Here is the input.
Amino acid sequence: MRYLSESFAIGALRRSVSIEQFLGPAFHQERRGIRWVAIEPRGNGRYTVVLYLSWDVGGEHFGDLLEFPPLVPDADDGEVLAEVDDAVEALELAERVTDAVRERWANFGVAAEDYFDYVRSGRLPDPLTKDAATDIVRTLLTAEGGDERSTSWRLEGLARRTGCLHISDMIYWPAGRSRTAEEIIEHVEACIPTAL
Here is the structure.
């Protein structure tokens, strides 16, 4: 079983065992990266929530997230978001500030399995060409985008990579949409990118 139930996640933290969660894509300029969060128990009885932004240098056969270099050159390896006194408070805080979800916490080192899923089904090609982006949008329009996580990873990647923060609305709203993938990508190209 890959994921920890809430009681197992809290129990692991209280036994001074770190837990983690793969969050999906991140980008810095032309670098493709990933985001993941860890909750790390400290010797003083406190819990530290750490967000990692790593350069996506892995693939189907290499997913040791701790070995990935920082996404932003010369950045620290992991940003401490908070340190709290309670394991439940650490979970709630991590979920609130990083979009982590309660059902996807894993033992430290196991988030690599989600990374491998991401590589196989949700990671955007690099470089993201107009044709590749059009193909991804076409796949999403025809409801062949895969499971909910894969779809989410693709949408988030497209939004972050293109700077068009409403691309999911272009694809999924309104119901009975009539835009083609080509029309959506033309719109995306016309958007003024927003710094992410």
The beta strands are 19-28, 31-41, 47-55, 79-84, 106-107. Residues 148-162 form the longest helix (15 residues). The chain has seven helices and five strands.
